[in-house]
Amino acid sequence: MPVGEAGDGQVSIEDRIEELRGHGVELVVGSVTDPAGVTRGKYVPLRRLGDFHRSGMGVSPSWSVFCVDTGIAFTPTIGVAGDLRIRIDPADVRLIDDGLAWAPGNLTEQQGTPAALCARSLLARTEAAAAERGLTVRVGGELECTMLAADGGPATTEPWSPYGIRTSLDRSAFLVDLATTAERAGLSIEQIHTEYGHDQLEVSLAPDTAVATADSVILTRIVLGRTAARHGLRISFSPVPFEGAAGNGAHLHLSLADAEGPLFSGGDGPYGLRAAGKSAIAGVIDALPDLIGVYAGSAVSALRLKPGNWAGATACWGLENREAAVRFIAATPGSPHGANAELKLIDPSANPYLAAAAFLGSALRGIDRSLELPDEVADNPSNVATAPPPLDTEQTAVIDAIEHSATAAELLTPEIVGALVAVRRYEIATFGDLSPAETTAALRLAWSC
Q1: Which CATH architecture has domain 125-442?
Q2: Residue 10's pLDDT band (boundaries 50, 70, 90)?
Q3: Which Gene Ontology biological process is one annotated for this entry (predicted)?
Q4: What is the Cα 320 distance to its own chain's centre?
Q5: Is pLDDT at 9 greater than 90 in this prediction?
Q6: Helix 210-230 and helix 119-132: axis angle, to 10°?
């Protein structure tokens, strides 16, 4: 069994420890990502891998209301009392650096049952709900990030060439190291390129199950950060790291299939959409106003989520339309994984487990309700008279919307919505009166791993 690949459950913990020790592992970190989108973890010596699996490592319930800085957004039900556990599966352990390995954690109660605020367990339940409907789910992830100098400032000052060979070859040693490290960690990277924004990089992941893709998003962030450090760089996953700069997205791609085949191709609807596929996309669009707080609810998200930024600021869909919230990719020879729907407005301040759960859950909701697919917007929505107006993305508005949304409570649970609202309201109080330049500077490294 190659290191970094999940086993079949037949390998003992003792054998796994010996295997990892053979690769130089001394410490294992298990992480969870909180509603503020920040990934946090605990480390154990390799010999305690079995304990991390069986008993877990203790964490305060306040981990679920830690904020993007050092604040804690206590709620009436989350305070200083109580204890939860992070538990990991030894089969999920991946190599991330010399002597270090990582695994995604589940947040559990003392008895081992999923904690109410475990985002990874929520996504697993949502994926199970799809399976109960006879649906197979595949999710792909894209990570945009900004390379920084070691001091947190711009990595380069010379003119930038988007997607340019010069700008990428200038970082060739870093990119080769990144590809090698990602392969060693068991990541399936499909593409790496320099992006439109100055010092911006994008990494695309192969589609997988929803939980596995969210895990890979976190692992890719870690690998990017550790690899960059070896080359004198830092990595920002802020939606907007510098005022006026191009923003970073965290797009997710969704495909669904049943016993008859893919829902997004092979039918008689637009571009081959089947009836259930049309309703799935309709469900995603229908829920967008209620769920922006999940996808792009941070103190800097609105700076990116504007018309003209290719960020999907309008609740509509269109074939290969990068200004639509849902960009549809048809089943063609140029789409090796088949037809899929890309949700463009997600940014890296979102918890990827919650974002994927909201995306998939809203698609299932659309199917269950047989929602009608709106007319396609085939051009820039700003140029189409019949297109809906841009979404309201101001932070107070999107947090108010999710707080009072029955759809959000249905898809994410009231407990998770409450924690998310608490940490985002803390951001409003802490950063709401700052200028964009001050806010982007304060949060430049908030979501870095």
Answers
A1: 2-Layer Sandwich (3.30)
A2: low
A3: glutamine biosynthetic process
A4: 21
A5: no
A6: 140
Contact (CB, 8 A) for 160 and 167: yes
Distance CA 91, CA 100 (A): 15
Structure tokens at 429: 């109080």
Judge if pTM exceeds 0.90. yes
How far is 256 from 264, CA to CA, in rounded Å? Answer: 7
Which run of H or of E encompasses 128? helix 119-132
Q: How far is CA 323 from the centre of its chain?
A: 20
Look-up: residue for tokens 């995306």?
359
Query: Coil, helix or strand for 434?
Result: coil
Top CATH class, 13-115:
alpha beta
Strand 57-59, strand 27-33: pairing: unpaired
Measured CA to CA, the distance from residue 422 to residue 320 in angstroms comes to 36
Strands 189-194 and 200-205: antiparallel
- Domain edges within the chain: 13-115, 125-442
Please provide the DSSP assignment of 146-203 as one string: EEEETTSSBS--SPP-TT-HHHHHTTHHHHHHHHHHHHHTT--EEEEEE-SSTTEEEE
Longest dimension (CA), the chain: 65
Q: What's the Cα-to-Cα distance from 313 to each of 272, 296, 322, 447, rounded to whole Å?
A: 25, 10, 10, 22
State the chain's mean pLDDT as an integer. 96
Contact residues for 176 (Cβ-Cβ < 8 A; gap 6+): none
Residue with tokens 């669904």: 256
Q: Is 305 helix (H, G, I), strand (E, B) or coil?
A: coil
Instruction: Spell 309-326 as b/e; 16+ CB within 10 A means b.
Output: bbbbbbbbbbeebebbbb
CB half-sphere exposure, 349, CA atoms < 13 A: 34
pLDDT digits 0-9 by tens, 255-270: 999 999 999 999 999 9
**pLDDT tens digits, one per residue of 137-156:** 999 999 999 999 999 999 99
